[in-house]
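Deliverable D2.4 — example input (structure tokens):
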């Protein structure tokens, strides 16, 4: 950074807090003034380049929009015939899980605690706890199974799309080779 005499105090503070060793060079003010003049003389050219880059960017964006519109027109049937994206659970499956979780929570509220020494009640309570554990474990297993099936279906769909894209690309390449041979 360039520092003039007025900012010497700031430079000393930076020097104290710097972890690495700083190098300093003294540059005469005439040289700095010459570079300032040179930069100012180039400012019009720089502004022109910036404006040109903005125009080019706008043109690129317009080209992208045009290409997108052309693709929509030419491939409209393909785009709209794609299957709608679906969540890994259907609405009925979601409702089913909600009902199962409600049933599990209702039973915990109504259970009476067994009295001291009442072995029969303790056995019943233990059986209920085990049943709840099994139920939650089965629900978890079912949920993970549906997620796995959904993931598998997505992968198969991606493979089909990729195969179709590869087939169309290969077909285009073969047709391009035929055209070259004819010419």
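Example output (designed residues):
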């Amino acid at each position: 950074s360039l520092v003039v005499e007025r900012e010497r105090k700031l430079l000393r503070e930076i020097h104290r807090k710097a972890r690495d060793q700083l190098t300093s060079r003294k540059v005469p003010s005439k040289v700095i003034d010459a570079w300032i003049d040179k930069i100012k003389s180039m400012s019009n050219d720089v502004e022109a380049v910036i404006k040109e880059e903005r125009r080019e960017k706008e043109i690129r964006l317009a080209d992208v929009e045009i290409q997108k519109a052309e693709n929509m027109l030419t491939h409209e049937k393909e785009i709209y015939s794609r299957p709608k994206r679906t969540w890994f659970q259907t609405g009925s499956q979601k409702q089913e899980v909600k009902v199962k979780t409600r049933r599990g929570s209702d039973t915990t509220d109504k259970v009476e605690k067994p009295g001291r020494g009442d072995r029969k009640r303790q056995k019943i309570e233990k059986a209920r706890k085990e049943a709840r554990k099994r139920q939650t474990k089965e629900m978890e297993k079912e949920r993970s199974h549906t997620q796995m099936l959904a993931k598998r279906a997505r992968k198969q769909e991606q493979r089909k799309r990729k195969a179709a894209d590869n087939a169309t690309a290969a077909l285009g390449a073969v047709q391009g080779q035929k055209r070259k041979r004819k010419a």
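The helical segments are 8-17, 29-74, 76-81, 91-110, 119-182.
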